[in-house]
């Protein structure tokens, strides 16, 4: 909820012109870019894209209770209007103003993989001490991050902000408004590489977060990532903590035990050894937890709250989420998204498991490496001892071919579902994963419901 602003203040913050000066003292208490979520007292900000123009809905916004609007076009309305050059940038500026009014703790995370899990784990710890707000769903882009800041309420004492990017400069854009005390970079891997041009483009974009951490703040960096030195140099003006399994890590895990029930490990930090139980699957989530431990430790939280917060964490829907199929199969629902590094980490969870199945959908946005990346995942599954490999989608056919003769590839999801319904039983463990656009969550739902059709 936006802290009350007059329209005169809004105009000043966004470098705009209030076209009806007689409304200068009118107060707004919220901001919305969507007429479907407007509440009384709202400022409507129309955004425009290739296939939509929010200016066309200003009249509807008035009907839904908006009391003013921004505009970069000539529009006919009785609403008070503030004219700006760019409504998207104006949204960010208002969010930045809102952030400046917030005196609580702000932690931010970016990276190619693990952002959402780190966000959830951090928020779980912060809530042990603070009234905490965090990024909801996937509102982590150039629109979602400002909206997240604008949803901060006066009663909030801490915020955990997730920052995603689809291209160069996007983290810099959002981080300038977030200004965290602690910033986490989980990793940089070839995920969504098309928008960045190269892996180096991803490394530089994730590193943009470091430029906007508060001067007395801390950069939390992955000691196991090949790009650590680049980020350390970029963050030379900040305090730093490295996390990971490497001897170079300031926050390091030892004695790691992973199972299909969760993970246990000892964390070494500041000369202390602390036992941790984590109800999340996979060694990669141990590393995510180390990032969170480093960040919350840097922010001054107690070990008691850190341990309790990790133990209280819950699996994010669609990210190695255990559930049961209608035939009793154990399904690891990892259908939210996929990239080669994350796919291999998920396969690692099944290592040593009997009756293991990998159910693969295509991985998107890999550019010219897409065929090699899918082939590599199929090979990795085979060498990891996976017993059964089934796939759908044109790119995943390369993975099935690499896995070998015992793999099965299907032209569409209904055919794959029918095969799984007919050939999997109670003793089987199925990892189901693919990029979001492939809709592999539909396969999960069909197996849970016992349906042979989507």
From TrEMBL:
Its EC number is 6.3.2.10. It comes from the Bacteria. Residues 318-436 form the Mur ligase C-terminal domain. GO terms for molecular function: ATP binding; UDP-N-acetylmuramoyl-tripeptide-D-alanyl-D-alanine ligase activity; UDP-N-acetylmuramoylalanyl-D-glutamyl-2,6-diaminopimelate-D-alanyl-D-alanine ligase activity. GO terms for cellular component: cytoplasm. GO terms for biological process: cell division; cell wall organization; peptidoglycan biosynthetic process; regulation of cell shape. The keyword Cell membrane does not apply. Keywords: ATP-binding, Cell cycle, Cell division, Cell shape, Cell wall biogenesis/degradation, Cytoplasm, Ligase, Nucleotide-binding, Peptidoglycan synthesis. Its main location: cytoplasm. Pathway: Cell wall biogenesis; peptidoglycan biosynthesis. It catalyses: D-alanyl-D-alanine + UDP-N-acetyl-alpha-D-muramoyl-L-alanyl-gamma-D-glutamyl-meso-2,6-diaminopimelate + ATP = UDP-N-acetyl-alpha-D-muramoyl-L-alanyl-gamma-D-glutamyl-meso-2,6-diaminopimeloyl-D-alanyl-D-alanine + ADP + phosphate + H(+). It is found in: Cytoplasm. Residues 109-295 form the Mur ligase central domain. ATP binds at residues 111-117. Residues 28-75 form the Mur ligase N-terminal catalytic domain. PANTHER family: UDP-N-ACETYLMURAMOYL-TRIPEPTIDE--D-ALANYL-D-ALANINE LIGASE. Belongs to the MurCDEF family. MurF subfamily. Involved in cell wall formation. Catalyzes the final step in the synthesis of UDP-N-acetylmuramoyl-pentapeptide, the precursor of murein. This is UDP-N-acetylmuramoyl-tripeptide--D-alanyl-D-alanine ligase. It comes from Thalassolituus oleivorans MIL-1.
């Amino acid at each position: 909820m936006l802290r009350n602003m007059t329209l005169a203040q809004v105009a000043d913050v966004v470098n705009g012109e209030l076209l009806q000066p007689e409304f200068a003292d009118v107060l707004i208490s919220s901001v919305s870019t969507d007429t479907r979520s407007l509440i009384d007292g709202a400022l409507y900000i129309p955004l425009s894209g290739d296939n939509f123009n929010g200016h066309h809905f200003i009249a509807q916004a008035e009907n839904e209770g908006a009391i003013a609007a921004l505009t970069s076009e000539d529009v006919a309305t009785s609403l008070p209007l503030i004219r700006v050059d760019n409504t998207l940038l104006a949204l960010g500026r208002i969010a930045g103003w809102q952030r400046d009014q917030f005196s609580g703790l702000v932690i931010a995370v970016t990276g190619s993989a693990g952002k959402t899990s780190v966000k959830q784990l951090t928020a779980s710890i912060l809530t042990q001490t603070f009234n905490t707000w965090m990024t909801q769903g996937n509102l982590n882009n150039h629109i979602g991050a400002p909206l997240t800041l604008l949803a901060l309420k006066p009663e909030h004492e801490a915020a955990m902000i997730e920052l995603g990017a689809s291209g160069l400069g996007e983290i810099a854009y959002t981080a300038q408004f977030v200004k965290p005390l602690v910033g986490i970079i989980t990793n940089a891997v070839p995920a969504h590489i098309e928008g960045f041009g190269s892996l180096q483009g991803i490394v530089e974009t994730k590193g943009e977060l470091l430029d906007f951490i508060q001067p007395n703040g801390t950069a939390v960096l992955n000691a196991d990532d090949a790009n650590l030195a680049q980020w350390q140099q970029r963050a030379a003006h900040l305090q730093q903590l490295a996390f990971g399994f490497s001897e170079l890590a300031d926050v390091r895990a030892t004695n790691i035990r992973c199972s299909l029930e969760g993970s246990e490990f000892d964390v070494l930090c500041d000369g202390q050894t602390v036992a941790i139980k984590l109800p999340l699957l996979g060694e990669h989530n141990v590393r995510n937890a180390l990032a969170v431990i480093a960040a919350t430790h840097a922010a001054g939280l107690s070990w008691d709250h850190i341990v309790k917060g990790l133990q209280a964490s819950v699996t994010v829907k669609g990210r190695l989420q255990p559930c049961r199929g209608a035939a009793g199969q154990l399904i690891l629902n990892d259908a939210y998204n996929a990239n080669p590094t994350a796919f291999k980490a998920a396969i690692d969870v099944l290592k040593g498991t009997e009756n293991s199945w990998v159910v693969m959908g295509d991985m998107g946005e890999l550019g010219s490496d897409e065929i090699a990346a899918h082939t590599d995942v199929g090979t990795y599954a085979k060498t990891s001892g996976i017993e059964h490999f089934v796939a759908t989608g044109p790119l995943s056919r390369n993975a099935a071919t690499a896995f070998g003769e015992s793999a099965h590839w299907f032209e569409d999801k209904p055919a794959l579902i029918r095969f799984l319904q007919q050939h999997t039983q109670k003793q089987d463990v199925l990892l189901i994963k693919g990029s979001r656009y492939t809709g592999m969550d539909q396969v999960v739902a069909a197996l849970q419901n016992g349906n042979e059709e989507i």
